[in-house]
Prior knowledge:
By secondary structure, the protein is mostly helical. Helices cover 59% and strands 0% of the residues.
Amino acid sequence: MRGGKVTxxxxxxxxxxxxxxxxxxxxVRGHWSIxxxxxxxxxxxxxxxxxxxxxxxxxxxxxxxxxxxLNLIRRRPSGKDSLTVKRKKAGWSITxxxxxxxxxxx
Length: 106
């Protein structure tokens, strides 16, 4: 409901498989799970949407480096720090960076 008015949103999906409603729901949720856990994080934490890499192997190489960095900062225990804070700390402190890469608890 927006502004006191009921709204409806329709989405269409194309698939080569015959699926039940429950199976289709699971497939769609699985897709959005990946989008929300990886792509959205790369956009927000690493500013991926603002990248100017457009040619040759630059975009592919940077995507690989960003995913490696994301995995490293995700596995680093550090209380309530967000991924953005962990990334910034790794840029500010060589000790923090080494501990993150080596997976040594802080």
